[in-house]
Amino acid sequence: xxxxxxxxxxxxxxxxxxxxxxxxxxxxxxxxxxxxxxxxxxxxxxxxxxxxxxxxxxxxxxxxxxxxxxxxxxxxxxxxxx
Length: 82
Known about the structure:
The protein has 3 helices and 3 strands.
């Protein structure tokens, strides 16, 4: 695919992931069923769908507005690679 991710931390709870992202500590790829619950409860974060048959489950990219440029690069790269 040409895109690799380097997890810096693994969290067990969705609330922890959201807290890190909204504080500006990275971004996260999360299952769609989690992001559906977060859409209205997390105004400090942005959720973008990643719809591609390459992935075996529906996923979304969760990021803070300050990282919009990097998130756009990731989404563009995914579109081109898949």
